[in-house]
Design a protein that fits this description.
The chain contains four helices and 17 strands. The two termini are 12 Å apart. Strands 3, 4, 5, 8, 9, 10, 11, 12, 13, 14, 15, 16 and 17 form a 13-stranded mixed β-sheet that branches. It has a two-stranded antiparallel ribbon with strand order 1-2. The chain is mainly β. The protein is globular and about 45 Å long. Strand 12 and strand 13 (223-226) form a beta hairpin. The protein is 13% helix and 35% strand. It has one domain (23-277). The chain binds zinc ion (ZN). Zinc ion binds at residues 139, 141, 150-151, 154.
Amino acid sequence: MENVRKHAYKINGEENAYLALNDPFTDFNTVDELGYPSKLIFTSKAFIHFLQLIDQSHSSSSYSRSGVEEEKGCFFFGRELVEQFGKNCNTILIDSYSEDWKTTDSHILSGGSVDPNPTLSEVEHAVENLGYDCVIYFHIHPKKFHYDVFSTGDYLSFESVAKLDFMQNTSLLALLASPCRSTEKRNIYQFSCLYVQPFYNQDGKKDFHYYQFPHICYIEDEKVMEFGRFERRVAPSLSDNRRVPARHMIQGFGVDPNTGLNIQDKQIGTYRDGYFSFDEGYQYRRRRMR
Ligand SMILES: [Zn+2]
């Protein structure tokens, strides 16, 4: 599959910086296909913060001046579990995070758009002094007015972070929690995660490939839990002109909008005394490159 890039497209002849045509759930290869089964695992502490931010994003107290819910976000910091699983194992443990991002005005959301820039010094400190080798750019889209995938502005923002000098040997992942828009029911969130891989193009300039990082997990007691999945259905009127393939299972939480049942998370292993043990089918194994 072609590694589709972001496209700004024109509405009424005007370039629209916010709508990206690609779909992070299906348009990119997964890192798993490169040979490395992925897992992004939140420790209990980091997981609580992750849930708190999502909670805040739809509480009425966070309405912005434009009258819509504000975006929320922060950087999470993680380490690839090289000691246990080897280099490029794509198994990342997240145990720390930056200050929450403040919101700022943007063209589309007055007072409601996240601004990660003031926390970049924390990222630099985490990378240079604390030994973190994975930085996760996490944000949450509000329920109204914005849509369910990364915007073109988001991709530009990831790339400006990934180009910073101190990110030279550090992996950047972009994680989005977005409200499921196939239903009016509240509190159904879906997750998309992309690995932002730098490369140098023909002109010698830094450019980026994107890969899906499709397994978001968390630690609860000593269990490693993977977020459950549900079938993504996007009404054509909500697809923003993107091609949205049918019958694609995505990770999220809340009530499955198709069945009305709670989305069930799944235990995939254990975490004891600093060591992971994954169940059959979730173990790290180096696959042949295609
Ligand atoms: Zn965004």
